């Protein structure tokens, strides 16, 4: 039923045992220390175990369900715990010590008198209070207490004796008493005597000087060195003395990078980012940065590495964006490719090549693969019935068709072709009731279009056989995702689309079709390599010699684990297939999602403007790399990590160590004479180094970073313990000076090691450290163990601080600039009444404005004034809703950019090297109706506010929210039409693309 | 501190006629004429005076006993820490106990959670992310409890971050 755990001799144990006996419940006893209690009752309820200390346990055992608690009993239980025990226990302890405490005895007396006169002891019924009092007071009957009770509190003695005769009590007490040393037990298990004078709240004013409050990690105060074995110690001695010249000099990095037979050759790709979207921090850590960390590590290791990536440029979104911006798709791609390229350059991503998918090689390789698949009978043709809009002259993809929801009972009129917002069920576009084209609202016709299909089921056996050899090396999330696809059964996949912007299909009758982007995008890896070197087949058709690592976020796993390898397998050519698929989870922004449209989150182009160096960003992103689960970017966290780990730990150590050399030894590494404790440090560093190597080899990049910080921590503690700055002072003995020199030399060499292993994380910083150290060849490759890289006499430069602190005001500014979703505690609870009032005012004023504008007779100034009033009201409304009022304005800006006027934004025109004139009339044939556009714009903004209000209210039903959203989308569509825009640009908004 | 937390609890339960006084260094709670001496009794008194809040005392015998335990712990240990070390000891005990449950007494919010939350809120509010991660279970518990509507009105929500500062590989040096 339960287990009593504690010290058997303690009164707490007696309490519980008695209660158990009385309630006829079976309990065991286990002897153990349960500080701060003498004994607890362990109870398990539905697989959760709870521990009840004595008084509460007694209550529990003696209570029957449904029985009402007796406040008297509770009162005395509390009295016993808060008043009696704090006096009784020290008194008993004093008795045990042989010197009775008189003051305590007096206090105890008055307490006991109170107890006697209360009548609780004379009650007929045995209650929890009885048991507790009996047990608590029982020790006073021991010999050491003498005649205390007899003379002064005979009532209590009587109580104890009488009760002691009752069967249950007698048995328990006898067995309990037979355990020795009651008083000793009390002595050992009591915690600090309770005193009501102390108020915990007072501690708020007193600063906690305990280490956990300081900006250093809690681990920094634990003794850092784990036990080092003798073998490790010997190994340390060998490795330290190992002459640096015996280490082979690093190979010259070949260009182009090609595999060498017999050596380790590593091919690395990072999922091609879609050209249209500016990458955000989540994209960056998920793909290119993770891959870069590994690529740099592999190069340090001496492997032959090829790291390629590029922008994925074909597809619908580029097409529509091009129309919107009045450029050709090629020009759009050029523009955005540069944005991507610059972002990654800033982050120091060490691609061997960063290319594009819109190249001749791409078409060539895709065609080759396609023909191979065709020749092997893996391509089938099939007619697919799709909706075609005659007005827009295009086949409509699912999300561009709207209509009535086909699900019974829903009837939502604006369901989309893939999902209904009304009932949230998946929809088949063909099943929509009265479908209409999202762009022009005309009814689409069903047209048959022939497409090509890749027969995955035929390839499935080969795929499964190959997966068995490869997938065990993947990250577990990738394995799981791949498995679930296979479990669901593979079906033939359509690999062509009716689009213009894409890789053409080399088959008669398919001239107006292109390959589906997910078919040809992975082929991009190959074609980009082909653009880099014509020896590309040495990498891509050389599976025996190559290890191929793919880096991506988990949403790309299906295509890289099933579709692409199937294509490769289907051709029967010896393609290099992925051996290690490394997939990350998602990075959130302050516990929410990144969103460009709402200005939430930091995007690649913005990062460069923050004033925080790229190395710090790399460090932080790799620190919170979402390996096993989603993680979250936090500004405060970034600051904390920078200031504590980078500055106080790493930066501080490097600066100190090198300063000692510079100040005390004229910038020359001194002679060293290591003793046993120094070798222990060397051995500990060796341990960390081997952890580092294993971690990074397995892409546990966070762990790897942790080992680097552990090494600098070791360094810091080493300096702290030995205090070389004291030992080298003039006037010290020769031995001490030698010690000081040794410690300095070892510390400086630790810095040298750090300058090597930090490189995959913070390349710029390591360049600077190596420069300070007087760059040596041995600093450019990963050592197997901690060697003496810097020999005595080696000259270093004057060190300067490498890391700057990040101040609060910077973080606060950046945090609000990027719309961080930090909870605002000062926010008033949203008042719906006020909102409705303001909303109606806004609507009224909006109508006013509209009337004035449509009336055509009002003067410009009048209109401007009324508009001002309207905007003010809107700001008020937004403030009451707790929403950022500036968000609504962005829609206006967007509209202006694409619509009639050609005043493109400053930024746009800077990047716009190739576009001749700013975006004038878009290529659409729809007329621009400015008046209508303005009217609709106002409505859109208003509806947008409404939607936001409904959402923030928090208690609106999903239907309500979706209904409002639908109205908003409809208005936006109308607005787009009025502006002569292709609505696809606005609808393709910010679905977070995680490539 | 007993009287402060009692007052806060009275506010939490929205009890209008409650008088809290100190007599003889002990806190006396008077609810509609019914007097109680002591913190534990006082809290239980408050809760029981509001039939709609009965569940806050605990639904099962075990829960009731656990609530009783925690309230006792408050007044014997938590509220009277003379030093930060003592408070740290209490926090460690809490941290350990919260390992296997959502609330102090299991899977339901009780007045014990409210009391401990009211007492610790001013402290946790000042904690750095590092400290919050040190006390992972307390942080998780605090985040859960502060979701309570009534507490949310009177107490600022504390921000907890899910991204770990240190990988939980538990490797010690």
Give your account of this protein's structure:
The complex is a heterodimer of chains A (995) and B (173). By secondary structure, chain A is α/β, with parallel strands linked by helices. Chain A has five domains: 188 residues, Glutathione S-transferase Yfyf (Class Pi), Chain A, domain 2; 202 residues, Isoleucyl-tRNA Synthetase, Domain 1, CATH 1.10.730.10; 182 residues, HUPs (Rossmann fold, 3-Layer(aba) Sandwich); 76 residues, Methionyl-trna Synthetase, domain 2 (Beta Complex), CATH 2.170.220.10; 161 residues, no CATH class. In chain A, 50% of the residues lie in helices and 10% in strands. Chain A contains 36 helices and 20 strands. In chain A, the strands form six sheets. In chain A, strands 7-6-5-17-18 form a five-stranded parallel beta sheet, sandwiched between helices. In chain A, strands 2-1-3-4 form a four-stranded mixed beta sheet. In chain A, strand 1, helix 1 and strand 2 form a beta-alpha-beta unit. In chain A, helix 32 runs antiparallel to helix 34. Chain A is globular. The two termini of chain A are 55 Å apart. The C terminus of chain A is likely disordered. Chain B is globular and about 55 Å long. Chain B has a single domain, classed as Glutathione S-transferase Yfyf (Class Pi), Chain A, domain 2. In chain B, helix 1 runs parallel beside helix 2, helix 1 crosses helix 5 and helix 3 runs parallel beside helix 5. Chain B is built from eight helices and three strands, in the order αβββααααααα. The N and C termini of chain B lie far apart (40 Å). The longest helix of chain B is centred in the middle third of the chain and has 16 residues. With 173 residues, chain B is mainly alpha-helical. The chains are: A alpha/beta (995), B mainly alpha (173).
